[in-house]
Amino acid sequence: MNRWRDRALFLALLAWVLLPVAMLAVRALAQSWRFPQILPAATDRLSALTLSTAAGDRLASALAMSITLAAATGLIGTILGFVIARSAAGSSQLFRRLTLAAAFFTVIAPPIALGVGLQVAMLGVGLGGTLVGVLLAHLVPATGYLTLFAVGVFSSLDSSLEDEARTLGASGWQVVSRVLVPLLRRRLGEALILGGLVSWGQVAITLLVGGGLVRTLPVELMSIVQSGDDRVAAIAALMLSVPPMLGIGLLTMGARRTGASV
Question: Which string of DSSP letters, residue by residue, matches 170-203?
Answer without folding.
Answer: --HHHHIIIIIHHHTHHHHHHHHHHHHHHHHT--
